Amino acid sequence: MSEQPTPTATAHFTAPYGPLAEALATAEFGTACASAPAQTAVLVETDDTGLTLRTHDYETAVSITVPDATTTQTGASLLPLAQLKKAMAAMVAGETKATAARTTLTLAGDLLITEHLTVPVNTIPVGEFAPAPKPAPLAAHLDAQHLHRQLQRVLTAAGTDETLPTLTGVQMTLTGQTLTLAATDRFRFAVADPPPPRTPTTREVWVEGGRDGSWGRW
Fold first, then answer.
1. What is the 3-state secondary structure (H, E, C) of 165-182?
2. 75 near 12, Cβ under 8 Å?
3. Which of 6, 34, 145, 171 has the fewest CB atoms in 10 Å of its CB?
4. What are 192's strand-pairing partners?
């Protein structure tokens, strides 16, 4: 009697196309610098708390929940992000934007399903995905637009010499309720003080990046 292979994709969920596509667009930030196939994929995790999408390319890590999704089985699937997005788009092709956004999509392991179509999606063994390091404890929450504006002020002074990586970033110093941003390329120096941190909300996703200012909240 032959032994059945262990399934490599076990996540099951149902979600409207619109919110799912939006979440995947955010998750794509975590694959921009990836080279290994597993790091260009999205880790889909389902459990009794809901659906979570994770990406990590060693420079940027993204973790985003999809509140409109309904999970039907606990599990995990590692799916090539570009292929998944193309398959989803093809399954709603020809529909109006509003109708497409409402179209219900189901992922059953490695099968993407709508009312009329079932499309297989390539999978990668979940164990090949290198998870992001656990972040430091949350220190503060700030309004994304204000933070972005202040970052643009200091990023003009950040260095571009890859042999001096420390100078290509922005130093963030939190003292009490005061956050100070600073950047320098040894010739210029810029400092900005965003508005004071605020009380955290329940639906937030942080994307952390480098000198391109790809820090945001959705």
1. HHHHCCEEEEECCEEEEE
2. yes
3. 6
4. 181
* pLDDT value, residue 197: 58
Give me the chain's average pLDDT, please: 83
The pair of structure tokens assigned to 9 is 């994709």
Instruction: Give the total residue count for the chain.
Output: 218
**Mean predicted confidence (pLDDT) in 53-71:** 92
Backbone angles phi, psi at 115, to 5 degrees: -60, -30
Give the residue, 134 or 43, on which the prediction is more confident: 43
Q: Is 118 exposed, middle or buried (0-12, 13-18, 19+ CB in 10 A)?
A: exposed
CA distance 69 to 71: 6
**Average pLDDT of span 20-34:** 93
Distance CA 75, CA 70 (A): 13
Region of residue 127 (left: phi > 0; alpha: psi -120 to 50; beta: else): alpha
Question: From the DSSP assignment, how many helices (H) and strands (E) are in the chain?
Answer: 4, 14
Has residue 165 got a pLDDT over 90?
Answer: no
Closest CA to 61 of 52, 69, 70: 52
Q: Checking phi first, is residue 203 left (phi over 0); if not, alpha (psi -120 to 50) or beta? A: beta
